[in-house]
């Protein structure tokens, strides 16, 4: 209720501050008997981790997951999967610029207002480091959902937009470049642009697009827990996200019903897919696709004016090694959250279709 | 879990099909001692109800709420507020065009796939009629949240966009025209356009913008239950919604961190508000604002080809009285869901700040 | 969260005060396609209702259920089942003895302390009238669980205890007498005793025993949500209940492990059943049986001293028509809550055993 | 939903098998700014741990808690408290007697039926080792609830019952003897008896009584989530518990209303306390007291006949070091669960009394 749990039946609870002893989580509700490929989990962690390329933060964190329970002889037992990732980087640093003043567009100020007290080393619980636990759980969800294909990729960086329908992309190319854009020419431009921005000590936003294919018909609950509502919440819970749209999205606003309606083929599939694979909140078997907008990272390596705890003006400057653009590392996080949502509805759906 | 409940502490459960005996709900968790203005509730109902102007559906439904419990001598008692709205319009109609074939971009097909059985009269549970129950509960939430001001309005219809910052608008004008756009000149153009579209038997999408002012600092939970994540889910749970963005939203993607960061004033407020009143998932006391994208209504009064239950092609045509554009009637629904989210966090927040 | 919802997937939310307009509820999560026998539901209501025999309260309440949604052409649709029971008896009475003073061992005092305000007509939400909504939902749960047999009966009234193992009883006799004790000789003594107590203007406690047979193996979750823990909570949530025990119960305390252990037969059943059909919180296919202890009803028709809102001593006397012993009418309520618990675990269990 | 979470706002999720890498949990919702005494937590762990006296199991487990998050500079931060207790004892043992055959009255059989697969080393998730995580969280809850006094003690072992009203006991004596019975003469007899039973290779049941004093008025929700219903569920979720009663309990059944009603004093307290400190599900400020019945431990060190996975008869014998009587070590667990329930209602109650 303090909001560290996601999901109803396939349920992840996370803990941990960026500079505490460890972060981790408990994944409850994963069915028994699922074979777990630990290397595949670590691979997802490596896609998210800092220091993997020249355009992301140069911090070094090995992000090695220790599993404590719920997996036995290579398979899930149906009991909760407890895991932790020890922070190797939490030594004493100089946090005075964070402790005593509030970084603009960070959570420092509201944490102090809400809790009256905060772990000022790093971003505490508001740090994107928390998402590492989501990637662990999402990687298990992906293995549970082996028949569903989830592919996220970067489709926009700043004003550089890849305007190619996802059906024409080869998702195998997503990992071929550090930006994680499956269109190599666009990826090269994006990479160049991120490097420029980094040189300025600045940051820039971007969009991650995600496509889920081979999703069974019937996932989603028709009123408050519509499939796209839960996907939206999942995406908006990722740090730095400012918007979510699925199917025709914000562009659909400009269309007329006669154009926008997806006509049926005789097998129940549709000729177009403005619906984005979801009708009335329920998956219809077509591809689910959506866009997630990320703002530019707030930490800029430039001097700025701000206030301290007493409301006095101070001038300070971002320090440390931060991402100039968050979207390349956000790709596995978007996939993980998508997998968690779909896994939850897979379990829930069995309950509804009772014979 | 079948998704008919919204909220955790201020919690609404709804029931009812569009053509059943009644729709209604139970609002649990509303604190005791709140004075309830029944006329204000009915006023919100009237803003949502069909037949209120020339540009909405001409169905006549009085939408009179009966309260069954939880209010005594004009005040809430802290016990659940049960209410119902009897359907006056559920007589035997000819539903054969819905019963035997699937309307494109409606939920008919997925309902049959998911439940194996459906109440084919009207849209059943997927009908926007369900939102009347949300408006009842939202109207109570507004009275509970009397210090917070929630104003939604139409900011776009099809390609007609009102490009005026909300700070320059007079919200008192929203109800001055049937479109519910607070800029009279734009409203007139939108009204004209909706009338044209209706004449064609077609429909068009739009955007509702919502602004919540005077929100206390500290609402929202920092990880999965970020304030904007729950607002996003709430909005995406409204029929026909395809997208949600708050603060800088999708436009923020194109900005650099140095422009996007909201610099502090000495009192903790910020000079700009790209954050949209929320930092790290927690309200910071600035205005919260967001956009909600609605697709064009699927029911068009034009002939179309579709399939029947056996997958055979049939040609049919939309009937009945439907909205050519959903956004004017969506305004009170967006406000209601906003109020429900904020009321829930108000209660939850007290728990966190414990002394 | 204000506690008017029971269950996770098969979920009942109730509303209504004893003297308000109506009581009722929403049953969410009932699978689609279950044939509903409305007469069977009304029959359960009649078992619970006042005025059915000489040893229960003589109030007349027809307790007719109106269904508003979720049932179509005689079957559940999978959507929420909304229902209400209008109070026919809520006319203006003289409530001054309740309004101005606190009845001993009633909830009046704590309601005023907790909510600062209460609907003083009748017991409000603390009245056993609320259980009528549980009986409606439980009757639907029974129809969903048609293969499981749930039989509750009165096994003790005051000091009169029926000491016969349930296996030797004919449950068909439970309804043969107004006490609902399936052993006619004991029933006759109990009836006599209750009549005596009533003449004195007094009340007496009792025990309801419940047996659930043909329960599938595997219901229950092994840690916090053990099957017997949820059954215990369900029973303890019924008005006037003071204790719950299952299997060997409090007597089991006196036994040694070597006697108490249930030895296996070769088919996995056990020779004895001290476990009460549940091992480690999970049903094992044997009969589930448990006892529920009810205190004597607090309303006695004798003069008593109490305090008013200002803490001044007042002498007053119970009025109206009350049950001298609650257990005969509690039998269908115990069965209803048992059915709700089992239905919830039936749905949940499908999620765990995933293939 | 797979039942490894307890509580709504003060919420514990546990993980871990008895012979896996570690057990542990996440406590979410603990308010910020609570000073944490780590030694007091370890003290509670030591009261529960094996090997502490001659009448409990002689296994050696240091049960050292590692905290991973949520505590900073000696105080809670309001973020989730993650913790783990590494299993030091999980080396390769001979588990063939558990792996291939089912121990009577254990969860082995139902686990295999439910999950199709189990971690057969030790009891896995059904082992009482899981309760160590509850004691950690309960110890934190006690510190949060510093004004409330929670005292549990052993009141019965086998047929040896201490028949002294709790008001006449000195709780300081509970820890003076290994049985944890605050009446030294009875304690000595109980200790003797447990030693005898252990010599026979047998086990025996017992009762733990718990008293919570200085509980604020108003905790508990009046319908399904009555305070005693949640306490009952909490107790019944502890391994080996067969029954729960509060206030007058099963004895209250034999009383008449005129005797059982608790008459008010002028300050709102009551002259008697058959209600057990709870009226209508809500605390009334009087002492809350209840009994928890524990069956004899199933593992006896005597030969017994059972079945293997194929249903063939086998003769085997319990091994290892087990408790002859579980109640002395159950005392801190009962206190921990009581603290968790009260902490949750403390947070929830703030929401209800809103000004």
Automatic annotation (TrEMBL), chains A, B, C, D:
The reaction(s) this protein catalyses: 5-O-(1-carboxyvinyl)-3-phosphoshikimate = chorismate + phosphate
Keyword presence, Membrane: no
Keywords: Amino-acid biosynthesis, Aromatic amino acid biosynthesis, FAD, Flavoprotein, FMN, Lyase, NADP
EC numbers for this chain: 4.2.3.5
GO BP term, pick one: aromatic amino acid family biosynthetic process
Binding-site positions, NADP(+): 48
SUPFAM superfamilies: Chorismate synthase, AroC
A GO CC term assigned to this protein in UniProt: cytosol
Superkingdom to which the source organism belongs: Bacteria
Pfam families: Chorismate_synt (PF01264)
Protein's UniProt keywords contain NADP: yes
Pathway assigned in UniProt: Metabolic intermediate biosynthesis; chorismate biosynthesis; chorismate from D-erythrose 4-phosphate and phosphoenolpyruvate: step 7/7
Cofactor binding note of this UniProt entry: Reduced FMN (FMNH(2)).
Cofactor section: FMNH2
Its biological purpose: This reaction introduces a second double bond into the aromatic ring system.
Protein's name in the database: Chorismate synthase
UniProt source species: Pricia antarctica
